[in-house]
Design goal:
The chain is mainly α. It contains 30 helices and 5 strands. It has 2 domains: 135 residues, no CATH class; 373 residues, no CATH class. Helix content is 60%, strand content 4%. The protein binds 2-acetamido-2-deoxy-beta-D-glucopyranose (4 copies).
């Protein structure tokens, strides 16, 4: 009853001067947020120039329409900013008059005048361009520079090695592969394929087999991450913005829209594997500080080559890979930023700068690297059980306070709000994403939980822990999945009910949300490692997850490139429906 009252109170408390909903008649009075004129027929005309711009609507005098637009946009969590419009214009056709007035045409001025007049005629509003004018005309030459050539040479060299390695494998070694040239065998496609589809995950130690379910967890999480990123084309060019906004009022979509916490799974797994493997290692060799640089360098060498290849291609040849009205704003910008800041990606510091849109999804890889280094330092310096307990507890408390402080001091939201406007600009300049979500130190809590979990599992295995008497907690264990589905969209409860909660509440939530989700993952992994039950464990330890888990890293690095290119080569707006989202996915 109390909960019901509380909900009603939340529902009633609406802010003044904000329009929460509009019916279609009213909605259609506003100029559409997205509009693209026909592209193909424009650029194929002789001398045809097609430009895309973003512009903002302004009004000097009082305007009823402008007030409505502003008030509707104030509900920024669920609505686009309707005073910020995206237009694709065939300049040589639509703005012909403005071109002929001034032959020394500066496209910026031409478009400004042309669009301003169009909006004035139709809506009695004025407009100003807010971004640079990005134009495609087929006369644009492909100018290849030294960087392009270098990357092409490297890629060809890798390809050649693959061919040579495969041939070597096929022709000379098909029967006994144990004594082949190790270096060439690394590039053999047959050999790599075999390793990719091999079922067993036999590590150096049979105890590692109890962590086999991490494959399932990894594969499922990466699938969810990719599914979320598949929404990108729909945010950048929806044909019906109203329909898109309405999806935000459907709680089902919020599991998809607010899945940002899923990434914590990877932090927990990464911490767990680090501490577990470190303890296996410590059985044979003495631990000392030299392991810190060695471990970091080994990890860098393992992660960087494939990452560097994708980065190099993004920085160079990708810019020639397509065209279209959306190409420059989705792909062109990324290429430009990678040329300027791509080197930061290679030293895994790109999550601490906010001006780059170079492979934005790799913030996670940078964060994970930083947390790996932190975990390695903690565990190699604090070697006794007591010391570890104390250090990890203190760090955990600190890790709860850090995000809360960020939220409180910088006045952020409770979690990452993937609002239409934020997603439309791929999180660029979003304060929640930049100051809290993507940093390394703000994600410390799940990593610490992972480290503790690795130590716990190792000790339980060593003491031959008997799980029988805990089997009655199966129900609690099974509750983890529903709990996950509640916690995942819980951040949206802060804005779903149309009120603005106090900053304290937001700060507390931002402190505990990540460790709460992390703890559930910890429970799942623990139950799986101890064979508490067979349902979740059976699903997660399914052999079919082994190969997807092995390519999850490559998939993570690559998938945004495909989603972006797919969006960039569109010449029309796209209809928003679950079926299309699934097909992009
Ligand atoms: C939409 O809302 C306006 C103002 O609230 C009202 O006048 C109009 O009749 C409504 N239209 C429909 C189709 O409901
Ligand atoms: C919408 O965009 C305009 C232009 O960039 C900006 O002035 C305004 O503050 C934005 N409105 C909201 C609610 O963010
Ligand atoms: C033509 O454009 C130039 C700048 O591109 C401007 O200086 C000049 O005044 C314009 N002329 C007319 C007639 O609008
Ligand atoms: C936009 O159009 C209005 C009305 O025609 C005009 O007064 C204003 O100067 C124009 N602004 C620009 C930047 O062209």
């Amino acid at each position: 009853m109390n909960i019901f009252l509380f909900m009603t109170l939340l529902l009633i408390q609406r802010s003044h001067g904000v329009i929460y909903e509009l019916n279609d008649t009213e909605y259609n009075k506003m100029p559409p947020v997205f509009h693209l004129e026909a592209y193909g027929s424009c650029v194929h005309e002789p001398g045809g120039v097609y430009c895309t711009v973003e512009l903002k609507l302004v009004s000097d005098g009082p305007s009823e329409l402008m007030t409505m637009i502003e008030e509707y946009s104030l509900r920024r969590e669920m609505h686009f900013n309707h005073s910020r419009l995206h237009r694709g214009v065939c300049v040589t056709r639509t703005c012909k008059d403005y071109l002929s007035q001034n032959t020394s045409a500066d496209l910026h001025l031409v478009l400004e005048g042309c669009l301003n007049d169009t909006f004035w005629k139709q809506y009695k509003l004025k407009s100003k361009l807010t971004t640079e004018v990005l134009c495609n005309d087929l006369d644009n030459k492909v100018d290849i520079d030294y960087g392009d050539i270098a990357v092409a040479v490297i890629c060809l060299a890798i390809l050649m090695l693959n061919i040579v390695g495969s041939l070597y494998d096929f022709l000379f070694l098909s029967h006994n592969e144990s004594n082949g040239n190790k270096f060439l065998m690394c590039f053999s496609i047959r050999c790599n394929w075999k390793r990719l589809v091999a079922c067993s995950t036999d590590g150096p130690d049979s105890r590692l087999r109890r962590l086999k379910g991490l494959n399932g967890l990894r594969a499922i999480s990466i699938i969810i991450v990719i599914m979320e990123h598949s929404i990108l084309p729909f945010v950048i060019s929806p044909d019906d913005a109203h329909e898109f906004e309405r999806k935000y009022y459907n709680i089902i979509y919020h599991v998809l829209i607010d899945g940002a916490l899923v990434i914590q799974t990877f932090f927990v797994m990464s911490g767990c594997l680090l501490s577990y493997n470190l303890q296996l290692h410590a059985e044979k060799r003495h631990m000392n500080w030299t392991m810190i640089p060695k471990g970091i360098i080994r990890r860098w060498l393992r992660l960087t080559p494939s990452y560097a290849v994708v980065l190099a291609i993004t920085t160079t040849w990708l810019r020639f890979a397509g065209s279209g009205p959306l190409w420059q704003s989705t792909v062109g910008i990324e290429v430009k930023d990678c040329r300027r800041d791509g080197w930061l990606n290679l030293i895994y510091l790109n999550n601490y700068i906010d001006v780059s849109q170079c492979m934005p999804q790799t913030w996670y890889i940078a964060s994970d690297m930083q947390l790996y280094a932190a975990g390695l330092i903690i565990l190699t310096l604090a070697t006794t059980a007591t010391a570890r307990k104390i250090v990890l507890s203190v760090m955990f408390v600190v890790s709860l306070i850090i995000p809360a402080c960020h939220t409180y001091i910088q006045n952020l939201d409770a979690g990452l709000i993937i609002s239409p406007e934020v997603a439309r600009h791929t999180f660029f300049k979003d304060r929640n994403f930049n100051y809290s979500y993507k940093r390394g130190h703000t994600n410390l809590s799940s990593s610490i939980l992972g480290l503790a979990l690795g130590i716990l599992i190792y000790n339980l295995q060593k003491n031959e822990f008997n799980v029988e008497k805990y089997k009655k907690f199966k129900l609690v264990y099974w509750a983890t999945l529903p709990a996950m589905l509640v916690i995942l969209p819980s951040g949206s409860f802060f804005y779903f009910f149309q009120n603005s909660p106090s900053l304290y509440l937001k700060a507390i939530y931002s402190g505990v949300a990540r460790p709460m989700f992390g703890s559930i993952i910890v429970l799942i992994i623990l139950g799986m490692a101890l064979k508490l039950e067979n349902i979740y464990r059976g699903i997660l330890e399914w052999n079919g997850w082994t190969s997807p888990a092995r390519i999850s890293y490559s998939a993570y690095i690559l998938h945004v490139l495909f989603v972006r290119s797919l969006t960039g080569t569109r010449t029309t707006l796209i209809h928003v429906s679950l079926a299309y989202i699934v097909s992009v996915f």
